[in-house]
Specification:
The structure is a single chain. The protein has about 150 residues and is an alpha+beta fold. About 30% of the residues lie in helices and about 35% in strands. The protein contains 3 helices and 8 strands. Strands 3-4-8-7 form a 4-stranded antiparallel beta sheet. A two-stranded antiparallel ribbon has the order 1-2. A hairpin with a 5-residue loop joins strand 7 and strand 8.
Length: about 150
Amino acid sequence: MKKIFCLFVSLICLGACSSGLKTAVKDGKIAPSFNDMLLTNDYLWVRGLGAVNPAHTSDSQRRIMSREAAIAHAYQRATEILYGAQLDSHVQVVDAVSVGSTVETSAQGLIQHMELISTEYLDDGGCSVIMRVNRAALKQAGIEPEQKK
């Protein structure tokens, strides 16, 4: 009984002390609200989301590729946070009505030593990943995330 109590207390402490992003999946779907970036004392945490390509027919291929898309998205988010993003916007107006609007973004930078922390799959095969990069490693590279806000 004493061992079970100690285990229970340990689990509660571990849960209370853990930091980082929480799940973005609720009932097998994307949750109505969630954070996609968090800056703590030790890490920059980012979330990436990947959708399923309907052309992929096997469950394995759908999950693998949505996971790869989610990882690429997390790297993109981290790059945008640390280095900023180039934004190009184009709007076409004909007879005082907008007939076309495009917004393109691009980001460029080097992100090293990102760790994949968690992978969650949605009911439709989409994927959510959480990745983090150590702030000490960023500081060694001359990057201070709090200055990029």
